[in-house]
Amino acid sequence: MTTMKKNMFPPGLVNNLQDVLSKKGANKNEQKQQKDDDSTETSTSSSSTAGNENDSSKPVVLVTNGEGVDSLGLVYLVQALVGLGLYNVNVCAPHSDKSASGHSLTVRETITVTQAEIEGATAYEVTGTTVDCVSLALSGALFSWTKPLLVISGINRGSSCGHHMFHSGVIAGAREALISGVPSLSISLNWKREESQESDFKDAVAVSLPLINAALRDIEKGVFPKSCFLSIEIPTSPKANKGFKLTKQSMWRSTPCWQAVLANRNPSAPHFMGNQQSLGLQLAQLGRDASAAGAARRGTTPRKNEEVESVGAAKSDNKAKKYFRLEFLDKEREATDDELDFKALGNGFIAVTPVLVSLQLESDIQTAASSWISGVLSGGAEE
Questions:
Q1: 120-170, pLDDT tens digit by residue?
Q2: Helix 24-51 vs helix 72-84: angle between axes, to the nearest 10 degrees?
Q3: Which of 35, 247, 258, 310 has its C-alpha lying 20 to 30 A from 322's C-alpha?
Q4: Model's pTM, two decimal places?
């Protein structure tokens, strides 16, 4: 079942999704046949593909995510793309979970890049954010290619609907790619702790592949939308999805709840902080000792910007400390427009939301803001 309206969305995108759904069964058979036909070739060439990322006969697909290079969503997605044998699959993903890092870059610090082992792919893990990973990968400093055909960010655990797009690391990865001029998709699975299981990620990959293949095909044809990236939200039970549905970003968000952590009620928190502080003080002392010893050997004083001195930032004091922990609480979702992302997702559809990068205001908002600013400035001038 497919529900679409040809209104604000690019006609090419609507036709593309309709074509994907109408040929869904055929695509599965074709992919299976392709996989069977290429199994021998893939097995013999996977190691060479990992070592040679510039196979000019295949387009490059870059995969990242917000949860880390070892997360199941990324691993299963990469395995599926490699198994098709159609693409050079490259991975540049965070070393650890950065799923709520938003569109943050690491500046004034050095990040570390380490080669990761993912069969059939050239993969790196980065001690930075998802945006760091995409920016570094597209810079030309890490990979030898100039730019990939498509960037896929995901598959992440948990929805990125509504205002969660602003917090989401997986959304930020796709957004950074589009800012850099590369078409991109972000993919999230509406994971629920009580219902979901690891196999759902494999099912999420299976329902995503037709859209990924269609996107790559249309990018090569030059008909894929260039002004937006696509946020793909997969329902909790991927196999039982009702089809793709074009949606709009909603205003929905979970309610942030900051809770105070008391020492007498949660002894583990101050104990943990105490250990961290103690470790910091020990490192600071070691840093000062090493700095002094080095200065004595050289007969000079250490420079102000010496990195070892920065470790001394940890200070011992007797000031009272307060501890807080952030949790998000799901609030009641009102029955609103069926074309909003969270509404379609809750109804079992795969919600596909075009997301713009440019901050263009609607005409009525522009008019209202201009009127208010003009009134304030003219009033201020009269005073």
A1: 999 999 999 999 999 999 999 999 888 999 999 999 998 877 666 677 899
A2: 90
A3: 310
A4: 0.68
